Amino acid sequence: MIESETDIFNFGNLLKDVFNLGIDTNKFTVTGIMYTIFIWYFIWSCIVHSGCAIFALITLKRHKYARFYSIVLFLMGFVGPLTNGIITSCLIALVFKFYNIHMKQWYVFLCGLAQAALIVFISVCKFPLTM
Fold first, then answer.
1. Which residues contact 71 (CB under 8 A, 6 or more apart)?
2. According to the model, what pLDDT value does residue 8 have?
3. How many angstroms separate the CA atoms of 120 and 131, rounded?
C-alpha cells in the first residue's frame, strides 16, 4: 500500500480519532498509526514528568541549586517523546502494518502507555547508579 504525500500531512481528523478508543485503525495509514502512538506516548510522558517535577519542586524547594532540577524533569517530558518517541512509534507502526495486524485504538493506546512506562522504568534503573 503506497501512501500519497498528502496523507503524511493530512492529520485533520486524526487528533479527534486519537481520543476515540472505540474505532478500528484499519482505515489509518502507517503515518496515522505512528502519529496516534506518538500522541499517546507524548501525553503519558508529560503526565508522568509533570508529576515528578512537582514532587521534586516541593521536596527540593529549600535547596539552593537542586530546585532547578524540577525544570529539567519537566523539559524531559517534552524532549524525550520528540527524540526517541518519534522513532519508536514509527517502528511499531511499521511492524504492525508489515504483518497486517489490525490495530484497534486500545492497542495504540497501550503502545503509547508501554513506551512511557518503559522510559520511566529505564530512568528509575539509572537512578541507583548515580549514588
1. 53
2. 47
3. 18
